[in-house]
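Supplementary material to the annual report.
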Amino acid sequence: MDPYDYPRHWEADVVLSDGGTVHLRPITPDDADRLLAFHGRLSERTRYFRYFGPYPRMPQRDLERFSTVDHSDRVAFVAMLGHDIVAVGRYDRLHDGESAEVAFVVEDPHQGRGLGSILLEHLAAAARESGLTRFVAEVLAENGQMVRVFRDAGYQIARSFEEGTLHLEFALDPTAQSVAVARSREQAAEARSVRNLLTPRSVALIGASTDHAKIGHAVLTNLLVADFAGPVYPVNPEHRSVRGVRAYASVLDIPDDVDLAVVAIPAAGIEDVLDACLAKGVKALLVVSTVVDRDAERRLVSQARAHGMRVVGPNALGVVNTDPEVRLNATLAPKLPGRGRTGFFCQSGALGIAILATAAERGLGLSTFVSAGNRADVSGNDLLQYWADDPATDVVLLYLESFGNPRKFARLARRLGRHKPIVAVKTGRHAVNPGMAGFAVPVDEASVQSLFEQTGVIRVESLGQLFDTALLLAHQPLPAGPRVAVVGNSNAIGLLAADALLSQGLELAREPVDVGAHAGPEEFAEAVRSTAQCTDVDALVVVFVPPIAMPAAVYAKALREA
Amino acid sequence: MDPYDYPRHWEADVVLSDGGTVHLRPITPDDADRLLAFHGRLSERTRYFRYFGPYPRMPQRDLERFSTVDHSDRVAFVAMLGHDIVAVGRYDRLHDGESAEVAFVVEDPHQGRGLGSILLEHLAAAARESGLTRFVAEVLAENGQMVRVFRDAGYQIARSFEEGTLHLEFALDPTAQSVAVARSREQAAEARSVRNLLTPRSVALIGASTDHAKIGHAVLTNLLVADFAGPVYPVNPEHRSVRGVRAYASVLDIPDDVDLAVVAIPAAGIEDVLDACLAKGVKALLVVSTVVDRDAERRLVSQARAHGMRVVGPNALGVVNTDPEVRLNATLAPKLPGRGRTGFFCQSGALGIAILATAAERGLGLSTFVSAGNRADVSGNDLLQYWADDPATDVVLLYLESFGNPRKFARLARRLGRHKPIVAVKTGRHAVNPGMAGFAVPVDEASVQSLFEQTGVIRVESLGQLFDTALLLAHQPLPAGPRVAVVGNSNAIGLLAADALLSQGLELAREPVDVGAHAGPEEFAEAVRSTAQCTDVDALVVVFVPPIAMPAAVYAKALREA
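Predicted assembly:
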């Protein structure tokens, strides 16, 4: 079999436990030099754990054998960070034809990032495709880290021990537990990755501008006005300072680590900026610039991810974290809502500005906000992973224009929705944005509807409904069940409400209570109080017709206090 | 005569042409080591110009002779910058008893700062006190800089030339020109010094605070919100950044020159801060902190000035420069007026805040603003020097609590007032601020009144009047003469206005014009227009009683357009 010709779907960008990324792919003979260099960088101890002996240099013959595989009986994956191999995992089919011996090695500074587990997961998937049913592994007993990788993978493992070596053996059929382990690992890694993005210790703004009309001025103003908890470093090759803050000609001149770089320069300059950011070791790139060229965008993202960097955008409005320990407003938005417990994700920047302004007006506070623009890398699914275990977020709002990975969305939304309500508007029913075609899986309207229904996402039809629903969820507890009571001062409207809730599949806990058109505030409040205390009532709808004789505010006050 | 016992009034802090300061005093035998070191730092060329030969080392005998003088027949002044001598000037009485030979030498990096002229000026004053009438000097013809010092000093100089040496001789009696030269030099130097303060290229904020209740937070916010044209460097030993801007543990850690350091830390720490600022080469210190200890304040200022640094404060509210190229708001004031052409000086911080807020409300724009607090160094007189040739300032407002140097104030105000109106409120008629006693010359009320009258300062009694007058001066041209016309729609009020202006010594250009109570806006405007066009009218007062039938705004509009 051609050692260069491997199944393309075996290639993947994967997110590690610290939120960084690597690129995973099968080895080819071209990797020989890189493999030799990788071996040379390994510590003695790591080499000993892998080869059970000193093995200081890899002879040419071994090098060729290790880098030339058939992708069927002999499979090897390399984890690439930029141009370097940082981990290798491989298996070799044994004589029984059904089992293979598996082994992997991770470069010392990258140990503890979960690369062993990821290699095992991808090797197991490849092995199942090649008709294998079992993995066996020999691990030195003192290699605790490797033993844990196997133990924690969720398989049923048989072990035996002989002369300091553990012999492990397990069936490759995914078990409920191995699937859960893989998903939990993926969730933790992706959430961590988003958390890195939302809690940078320092921010560089590339294209910070002294010109008030430029986006690079707006973002800097927002970062400073929000009182960001760490330093903001404007990057501008022409000015010594921008808005009173010392500026640097290049991100490489910044005398400090940079966690997040916001890019606000014309598309033509982004490639150079990316190189500088990679050289600087920037962890996340937020591209608010408009990039029209899809190929340039793909190159940008694949290069960034291959070097361990996440990308938000391009065409992003930006990201917000209202955590008082962070105070990050890296957006173009002139108006921002206050702090709250709602997480918000949207795609397009223009709509994002309107949404944030509306949220501010209607008093809906946010925990975190991400407008990912073209979602070339970070997507709504990443945010669902993040919010799943974000203690600052109780309600999730999504404004979606298209789906990148509907299957994963369904899985993540179903799990997240169990604890935190998700409200979504999905636009683009009729319109198709041709620019997004490359990143969006076409999903027809009926499928969208059933996707939302199956996953328990609350679908609304407009921004107005989105905020109505979000405010209700943000300020009212979730009902324990479907039993609804109705109290009001108009029998006609009470019956209308009862009809409406029955048609939505809810239950009427009891006949609607009518306190009568002449009931005073206190009488009305008393009826609400006593109904709310009934144990067979999960939710209470109050309908109210303002009487002519008394201002409605008096009723509102009495009802609020009820 | 005791070589240590010199007339104390010969000591002075002087401002050089670049706005920096040095301390001038007679030499004493203790200066021998410093003199030797100074001589060692001189370039060959400078030594040659002074000693007409190589003279690489100063022998012990010369050293003793040069540093031991009698302060009468032999006088020498040293200019000190910190602990170093940077210039020496001396004269020796000649045998005729009436003339002396004068000579001076300036260390190379300090040449061109006007030290020669200053030494000549102070030596001449000392010589006059000692009964001398003439100076003679021998200068190498090629020493153009020294020749210019003598030529430009304003004396009637006789010269003769022999073998490459110029022999200069002149009477020491001050001439009108020599006085004018000295004052113009002083004005230029003091103005420059204030200009350095008001146009810093970078600002350090010592005591920048993350705590919103601290003044170090307020000043940083104001600097950033004003969009200062250069970098602002927060200094805070505990935080990596303040308000999103990278902070430094000490001013010494700032990787850039610092022109202005704002001090917002408790008084106890200021001495250490001063040492750091002197080591850093900070040009001006703005102390907004409250310092109660007058001795500590004196030590601070004398040390700062001796090292070439100006000090604003302590207890200063701060300084403002609305120049769009500078955009400096280094104050505690929460509300600032916009840009305008009025310069404002005040002492106390608390009043300053009220004044700035009122100026903002009443729409009086400022060019520059300085609240100097205790005026331990920079005073209102410095500002008068600055505004004299500041093209951005047309009107000067002063809010004075006391006078530091009333004689100089009178001289400066008289000169400045010829071109730019000065409006002053002087408080403290009855109250005496004991804390200010050390820095204020007691001036009784009658003297204040005559001081203002003689100098042409417009004295007002209250802040309300100050703003009324300032707004009039800021928005109306100065009348060419005393002839005033009155136009109105009420004869009675017109006559009252005529009476008032006559009692103020103005002239009535003609009988008051009464358009009658029923005149419409257009008729009224026409009367104003035609009166304003008369060539015998220097100023026009319009009096107006709102008629019942028509809103006053319609009249206002018509009159504005007239």
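Residues 39 and 326 of chain B are 41 Å apart (CA to CA).
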